[in-house]
What we know:
Distance between the termini: 9 Å
Order of helices and strands: HEHHEE
Structural class: alpha/beta
Strand content: 15-25%
Number of domains: 1
Oligomer: single chain
Number of helices: 3
Helix content: 25-40%
Radius of gyration: 13 Å
Shape: globular
Largest sheet: 3 strands, parallel
Bound molecules: adenosine-5'-triphosphate, magnesium ion
Number of strands: 3
Amino acid sequence: MGGVGKTTMVKHVAKRVEEEKLFNKVAMAVVSQEPNLKQVQIGIAEMLGLKLDMENKIVRSIRLHERLLQNDKKILVILDDIWEEFDLEDWGFPLEGGNNKSCKILFTS
Ligand SMILES: Nc1ncnc2c1ncn2[C@@H]1O[C@H](COP(=O)(O)OP(=O)(O)OP(=O)(O)O)[C@@H](O)[C@H]1O
Ligand SMILES: [Mg+2]
């Protein structure tokens, strides 16, 4: 339901995860009812220190995917406020965690 506290809760999760060092990095983006998935990609990448401003979606998605599966870092990606289904892999968000399960995705809807 709207307004039950999803966004507040994931912000607390992000804070705890950082305090307790459960992941090396946390990156969060708001998807919203009218999503701009290019901006979501750019925002997540920027929080991980990766500049992702190229126009080509396939290149952006591959770069993001590579970054999220870098083996030495455990990354938590938080996607808040999803309304409609979209293809995570297609947008560079790995569904498989990689060799050592280095990336997890948490979303609210
Ligand atoms: N545990 C809580 N106790 C008291 N107030 C809360 C709690 N969690 C959230 N709130 C308050 O409730 C309001 C809505 O919270 P929030 O924006 O997190 O909800 P949401 O589920 O993300 O809403 P939406 O569906 O619109 O995205 C905010 O003003 C927030 O401060
Ligand atoms: Mg919200």
